Amino acid sequence: xxxxxxxxxxxxxxxxxxxxxxxxxxxxxxxxxxxxxxxxxxxxxxxxxxxxxxxxxxxxxxxxxxxxxxxxxxxxxxxxxxxxxxxxxxxxxxxxxxxxxxxxxxxxxxxxxxxxxxxxxxxxxxxxxxxxxxxxxxxxxxxxxxxxxxxxxxxxxxxxxxxxxxxxxxxxxxxxxxxxxxxxxxxxxxxxxxxxxxxxxxxxxxxxxxxxxxxxxxxxxxxxxxxxxxxxxxxxxxxxxxxxxxxxxxxxxxxxxxxxxxxxxxxxxxxxxxxxxxxxxxxxxxxxxxxxxxxxxxxxxxxxxxxxxxxxxxxxxxxxxxxxxxxxxxxxxxxxxxxxxxxxxxxxxxxxxxxxxxxxxxxxxxxxxxxxxxxxxxxxxxxxxxxxxxxxxxxxxxxxxxxxxxxxxxxxxxxxxxxxxxxxxxxxxxxxxxxxxxxxxxxxxxxxxxxxxxxxxxxxxxxxxxxxxxxxxxxxxxxxxxxxxxxxxxxxxxxxxxxxxxxxxxxxxxxxxxxxxxxxxxxxxxxxxxxxxxxxxxxxxxxxxxxxxxxxxxxxxxxxxxxxxxxxxxxxxxxxxxxxxxxxxxxxxxxxxxxxxxxxxxxxxxxxxxxxxxxxxxxxxxxxxxxxxxxxxxxxxxxxxxxxxxxxxxxxxxxxxxxxxxxxxxxxxxxxxxxxxxxxxxxxxxxxxxxx
Length: 692
Hints:
This protein is an alpha+beta fold. 37% of the residues lie in helices and 13% in strands.
């Protein structure tokens, strides 16, 4: 009787302790399920997947109807054979596990967990509890599992388990859920798994590291055999089916889906834009579906155009950016380099001097801020000797061939890319106003507001993306739309964030933008950019920098605004004679690339700019350096080897400009790969900056 009483008291004590532990646990309704996140996917405009955004945790939720029945059966057979009949707790399993725990001297409790209890541990228990397997934690799991079974169907619980269990780590990335596991171990969607593959995956959650088929193929095969035998015992498959699957190879295949990225430069640009908007954690684990503006056909056309001209070993690098001016959508961003050579993207990260391509901002300052008509505003084309501009005693400007036109209109100076006229015009309209115009049109890099900037002498430089964006403002009738590579982002809960309609801001009246376009058309028809003429109405501007280190053509039609840059990664390396073409002018190196791309991208469609209903009526600008000359206003012929210009070789210190003692200096710059500068100062290199 004493012994019986002692046992009864002991049992009651244990029962009381179990009840107390269960009562101490919160109700499942009080717990928020833990979301391990999902990988984010990026798509091109046509729906082609560009890639998955890298994360240490891989997870892709698969809808229940897409999970193969054979996989569900394999999981139940090996993990929880009585799953369909118990109420979330398997007393027989827990008793067996408790006995092993007692005989094991108090070590961590092994086994006894149903699929429902495992699911509770995976997504409901705090991490500090989920990482332990004590009897106390088992009791808490059991209580919560019972509550979950009363709220959810067996099918929901099984599907959720398959989407949340850890299947192991490969290459530093952990596959959470069977969707990620199928891609990680077999490089295929889970819906395509066969019996042998489903059995292998079903056996992994018990000990993912131990049974990893890449690391321990023999143990993985033995574990797969156990799963197949359990499926036979549960009458899910026949012994013959199990034997056939058992004879097959492991069929594992290194994953290429999660690591494969199409258009990696574009992908990196999109990823960075997402991180700036949503934060790193959301981007890497938020399960976002990101739809971009990138047109893969135009992307290929851009790459082909670049490589057709700069694709041989030793050739300069090149980049092309093309934007739809009507909405700011970036359609193509291509570069001559491969991602294996350098992760540096010349299209978006290279900051280079632009040469005369920057004159468009002086032109628009004349038209917009001063109501000046480029056709009736005249300047004298002549060498500007040191001292011509008060406050900048060493500033001198020349043309490339030291030939001068006398009194010419701003329009003709644009056609011929006459630096001496534009240097005087910049001084008259004001460098600060030119800087403001550039910012308003889309330039985002820092500008100093120095006189040399108007003819392209930039200390930091700008990217091809910025230049395409700025010229798109004119193509869009004077309305600036910030460029975007993303149309929308879809979150797992269905929330959609629209990024494809950036804010529109009118910078110029349409009549003024149209007037500038008519001037820039002459560059393509008869000026320095004739190599860009592909037979459709187009406007644009060439650009060439000091010692031929950078060559540009930036132009537009009503449908596309496209910039092309050519240059060596080392910004001090000259393009003296690329492929036998002579000095590396923008009209020689960049304009042909622009021509080839636009010819293909337009797909045979031509349109012209619609004249404004009320024409803009500009007046002759009366600047300090302007003349009253009446030379012909008809655009003269010109080429990149014709009229040019030279800004002074300078370094900048504060607001002063000084000549380097031993010749033109080089201002600080942003570095490109291989130690090369990505952009010089207001001018750099011997002899000044030639600008076309």
